[in-house]
């Protein structure tokens, strides 16, 4: 090998070693898309996970499209929780009985009265264990309960941690926390 080739290899080796310090380390946290599932007759007008928005959900609806993103640890750890906040319309089909024509003064008054009945909720929710971070799935259950997963498995997968029926009835009385 000639001296020029040895010098060239030496320069490439030094360059490669010096650039290695510029390489990003594997991050501790990543943004994961958010998806929701309403297992009740209420509509979820909006919700968020750690202040990041999720889609609105129809009664007994799922999906609603993925929104971006809830930042979570790449690796699950015991005690991992998220804050879920949501607005719920307990009677999403009431508009069918509102006065006509649409957007008239009477219709607008009915809409305002209806919106006054929306309820707002906040819960600190444990995240089910996951091997690898994936989609953040938020399940809205009766009695304003919420369950959250964040792995690569989707509902109806055999190893999915929750087996909630799509349609769940609200009990006459809910347990007090």
UniProtKB/TrEMBL annotation:
<feature type="signal peptide">
    <location>
        <begin position="1"/>
        <end position="23"/>
    </location>
</feature>
<keyword id="KW-0732">Signal</keyword>
<protein>
    <submittedName>
        <fullName>DUF3304 domain-containing protein</fullName>
    </submittedName>
</protein>
<dbReference type="Pfam" id="PF11745">
    <property type="entry name" value="DUF3304"/>
</dbReference>
<dbReference type="InterPro" id="IPR021733">
    <property type="entry name" value="DUF3304"/>
</dbReference>
